[in-house]
C-alpha cells in the first residue's frame, strides 16, 4: 500500500460519518494525547459519531485530559463505523484486542512516527521525522484549515511534551517547536500541563522506582545497565504497567551508560522489555529480531517467554550491537 499525504487523509476523514480512534496497548502520553486530539479534530470537522476505544484504560497520569472520560474499552466499540483511525502505532498486533472490533467494511487509516517498514492500514502516513504523533494531529488542523480549540491543543501538547521528554530528547527539532508554538498560541497553560505530566509521582510508582534503582546491574564496562522487575515485586509495590513510564530514563542517565534495559515480568510466559540509548546505539534495531521496535533512542518489545529467557535473548542482542559500535 503506498503512503498517503496528509491532505488525502484529511479529505477521507471529512467524507466519513463515523470513526473509531485507537492507539497502542499500554498507552503513553503521546498515545492518549494524540488519540484525544484526533477526537477533537473530528469534532472540529463536525462529526458526531466518534469513538475512542482502547484495550487498556487511560493511565492515571492522563485521565485529566479533555475527552479522556469518553474513552471506552474494546468491548464497547460500536459494531460498525466508516473509518478506524490508528495513531502512534503502525502495527495491527500493537493495538491489542481493539483489532478484533474493526469490521472488514471499515477503512483503516494509520498516522504514526515509528520506524516501521511495512505499516498497517488501507491508507497511512508514517513519518519518523515527527517527534510525536501529536505533531501529526496538529498538522491535520492546519491542513484542514480548522481552528484548534484549547482542549485539542492541551491533548496535542501533552502528546508532544511527553514523547520528547519536555522537548529534550534527540527527536526534538525546529518543527517540533514550531508546532508547539501553534499550540501555545491557543492560550493553553504550559506550566500547569508540564507539572501534571512530569512533577507527579504516585506512591506505587515511587516504590517501584526505589526497587528498580536497587536492582540495576551493569555490563560491558558500564556501557550497559539493566534491571528486572518480577510480577511479585510489582504487586508488592502496588504498581501497574503505566507506572514504568519514565523509570528507565533514570538508568539511562547514569554516567557512562550507552544503553539501558528494563525487564518487566508480565506473567510466567510474557516479558515486557524497554530500551533507551544514547546516540550511536539503535534501540529499535536491537529489538527488531525479537519482534520489537520503536525508535533509535527508545524501543520496546513484548516477548512470549519467561523473564530469564527474555533477559538472555535481549542482552545477547544488545551486547552484540554494543560491540559493533565500539
Ligand atoms: P516503551 O519502552 O514501552 O516505552 O516503548 C518505547 C518505544 O518503543 C515506544 O515508541 C513504543 O511505541 C515502542 N514499542 C514498545 N513496544 C513495542 C513493540 N512490541 N513493538 C514495536 N514497538 C514497540
Ligand atoms: Mn506511544
Ligand atoms: Mn509516539
Helices and strands in order:
Layout lengths: L5 H10 L2 E5 L6 H16 L4 E6 L17 E2 L9 E5 L19 E6 L10 E4 L6 H12 L5 H14 L10 H11 L5 H9 L4 H13 L1 E3 L4 E6 L1 H7 L9 H6 L6 E9 L2 E8 L5 H6 L4 E2 L3 E6 L3 H19 L1
Parallel strand pairs: 1-2, 1-4, 2-3, 4-5, 5-6, 8-9
Antiparallel strand pairs: 7-8, 9-10, 10-12, 11-12
Helix pairs in contact: 1-3, 2-3, 2-4, 3-4, 4-5, 4-6
Main pleated-sheet profile: 6 strands, parallel
Residue share in helix: 25-40%
Percentage of β-strand residues: 15-25%
Poorly predicted regions are none
Question: How many domains in all?
Answer: 2
- Which of globular, elongated, flat, extended, rod-shaped describes the shape? globular
Tally the helices.
11
Average pLDDT score: 96
What's the Cα radius of gyration? 19 Å
Q: Please identify the oligomeric state.
A: single chain
Name the hetero compounds present. Answer: adenosine monophosphate, manganese (II) ion
Corresponding CATH superfamily of the largest domain: inorganic pyrophosphatase (n-terminal core)
CATH first level of the largest domain: which class?
Answer: Alpha Beta
Which topology of the largest domain does CATH recognise? inorganic pyrophosphatase (n-terminal core)
Structural class by helix and strand composition: alpha/beta
Please tally the β strands and state the result: 12
First and last CA, distance: 38 Å
Strand arrangement, major sheet: 3-2-1-4-5-6
CATH architectural name of the largest domain? Alpha-Beta Complex
Order of helices and strands: HEHEEEEEHHHHHEEHHEEHEEH
Amino acid at each position: 500500500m503506498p503512503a498517503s499525504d496528509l491532505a488525502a487523509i484529511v479529505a477521507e476523514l471529512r467524507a466519513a460519518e463515523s470513526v473509531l480512534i485507537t492507539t497502542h496497548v499500554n498507552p503513553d502520553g503521546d498515545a492518549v494525547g494524540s488519540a484525544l486530539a484526533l477526537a477533537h479534530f473530528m469534532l472540529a470537522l463536525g462529526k458526531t459519531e466518534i469513538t475512542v476505544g482502547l484495550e487498556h484504560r487511560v493511565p492515571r497520569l492522563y485521565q485529566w485530559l479533555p475527552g479522556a472520560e469518553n474513552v471506552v474499552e474494546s468491548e464497547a466499540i460500536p459494531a460498525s463505523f466508516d473509518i478506524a483511525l490508528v495513531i502512534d502505532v503502525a502495527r495491527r498486533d500493537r493495538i491489542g484486542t481493539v483489532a478484533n472490533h474493526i469490521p472488514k467494511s471499515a477503512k483503516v487509516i494509520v498516522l504514526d512516527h515509528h520506524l516501521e517498514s511495512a505499516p498497517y492500514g488501507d491508507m497511512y502516513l508514517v513519518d519518523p521525522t515527527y517527534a510525536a504523533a501529536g505533531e501529526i494531529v496538529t498538522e491535520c488542523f492546519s491542513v484542514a484549515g480548522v481552528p484548534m480549540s484549547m482542549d485539542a491543543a492541551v491533548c496535542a501538547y501533552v502528546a508532544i511534551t511527553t514523547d520528547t521528554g519536555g522537548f529534550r530528547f534527540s527527536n526534538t527539532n525546529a518543527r517540533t517547536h514550531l508546532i508547539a508554538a501553534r499550540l501555545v498560541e491557543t492560550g493553553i497553560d504550559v506550566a500547569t500541563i508540564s507539572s501534571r505530566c512530569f512533577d507527579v509521582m504516585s506512591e506505587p510508582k515511587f516504590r517501584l522506582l526505589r526497587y528498580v534503582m536497587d536492582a540495576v546491574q551493569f555490563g560491558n564496562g558500564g556501557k550497559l545497565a539493566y534491571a528486572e522487575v518480577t510480577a511479585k515485586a510489582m504487586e508488592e509495590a502496588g504498581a501497574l504497567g503505566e507506572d514504568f513510564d519514565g523509570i528507565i530514563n533514570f538508568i539511562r542517565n547514569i554516567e557512562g551508560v550507552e544503553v539501558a534495559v528494563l525487564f518487566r515480568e508480565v506473567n510466567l510466559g510474557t516479558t515486557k522489555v524497554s530500551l533507551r540509548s544514547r546516540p550511536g546505539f539503535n534501540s529499535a534495531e536491537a529489538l527488531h529480531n525479537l519482534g520489537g521496535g520503536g525508535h533509535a533512542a527508545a524501543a520496546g518489545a513484548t516477548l512470549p517467554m519467561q523473564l530469564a529467557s527474555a533477559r538472555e535473548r535481549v542482552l545477547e542482542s544488545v551486547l552484540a550491537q554494543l560491540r559493533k559500535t565500539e
